[in-house]
Amino acid sequence: MEIGLTHFLTLSAVLFGIGLFGALTKRHAIAILMCIEIMLNAVNISMVAFSRWVAPVDLTGQVFAIFIIVVAAAEAAVGLAIVMSIYRARQSVEVDKADLLKG
Question: What are the tens digits of pLDDT across the range 36-66?
Fold first, then answer.
C-alpha cells in the first residue's frame, strides 16, 4: 500500500483539528502558543504534500514551509516575551487574568 496525498491531508487535518481544539479550550497562554505551533505544522505538512503531488519538480511548497517555520519561530519568541511580561505583572499565565488594558 502506497502512502498517497489523502494520507498526508488526513494527518494534516487531524493535527489542525487537535491544535484548534486546544487553542480554543486551553486557559494557559503557553499551551495556546503550543497549539498554534501544532496548527502551523499541520499547514506545513499539507503545503509540502500538495507541492509533491501537484508539481513534483518545483520546490514551492518546501519554500513556503520554510517561510512558515521562520514566521512560527518569530511568533514563538514574541509570544513568549508577551507571556513573560504578563506573568511579571499578574503572577499568572492564565488568559482570563490577562486584562492589562483595563484601568
Answer: 999 999 999 999 999 999 888 888 889 999 9
pTM higher than 0.70, yes or no? yes
Longest dimension (CA), the chain: 62
Integer Cα distance of 103 and 85 in angstroms = 17
One-letter identity of residue 81 = A
Complete domains list, the chain, with CATH: 5-95 (1.10.287.3510)
- Measured CA to CA, the distance from residue 12 to residue 23 in angstroms comes to 16
- Let me know if 8 is exposed, middle or buried by CB neighbors in 10 A (0-12, 13-18, 19+): middle
Q: Which long-range contacts (CB under 8 A, 24 or more apart) does 23-27 make?
A: 27/94, 27/95, 27/96
